[in-house]
Amino acid sequence: MTRPNWDADEHESSAKHDDRARSDDGATARDIIVHNPNPDRRGRWLPASIVVLGAIAMVQAVAFDIVAGLRWNALLVGAALIATGAYNYVRRTDAALGSVGVATLTAILGLWLVASPFVIGPETATVAAANELSATITVVVGLLVVGIGSYSAVTARARRGDADARETAVYDRRGQ
User: Fold this and answer.
1) Residue 91, in any domain of the structure
2) Is the CA virtual torsion 168, 173, 175, 176 positive or negative?
3) Is the pTM of the predicted complex or chain greater than 0.90?
4) Where is region (Disordered) located (predicted)?
């Protein structure tokens, strides 16, 4: 950091300090600088679709008579997808950019949904047809989540780089 070209010792101790933006209640409108990197609230469909896919994962787990391990997996991962999608949706609705980390976590959860039917697998033959249909739905939902989550992470990172820089206040006491 460079040293300013004026010295703090030059400030006269009896000079009035700058209290233009002060009030008894704290910050005034002049003190607040609104940072709005996503003014058009772009990209809300991405996290909204993640919420829908998380709900599909949860509904299919309850609708079919599947192995308990697959059911709990789909319920927990579906709830996590709803939470991550809702978080990024709220961020983008508030004119902020989506979180790259949350979108990446969403893509990782999608990868787990793709792998989970093969890792956990069906245990009994009595529910084999329901397990196969549920596994197919889980894999399709997982692939969609991986694609949307990855796209969301990449676009959020790119938009973060293109966003306007946050304005900062510059306070200069020279001339007081």
Assistant:
1) yes
2) positive
3) no
4) 1-36
Q: What is the pLDDT of residue 46?
A: 86
Per-residue pLDDT reduced to its tens digit, 115-136:
888 888 666 544 566 678 888 8
Shortest CA distance to 35 belongs to which of 171, 164, 160, 159?
A: 164
For residue 111, what is the enclosing H or E element?
Answer: helix 100-120
- Counting Cβ atoms within 10 Å, is residue 32 exposed (0-12), middle (13-18) or buried (19+)? exposed
Give the other-Cβ count within 10 Å of 7's Cβ.
Answer: 8
**Alpha helices (H) along 97-172:** 100-120, 128-162
Give the pLDDT of residue 142.
94
Domain count, the chain: 1
Partners of 22 in the β-ladder: 27
Choose among 119, 118, 110: nearest CA to 140.
110
Q: Which domain covers residue 67, as residue numbers?
A: 45-159
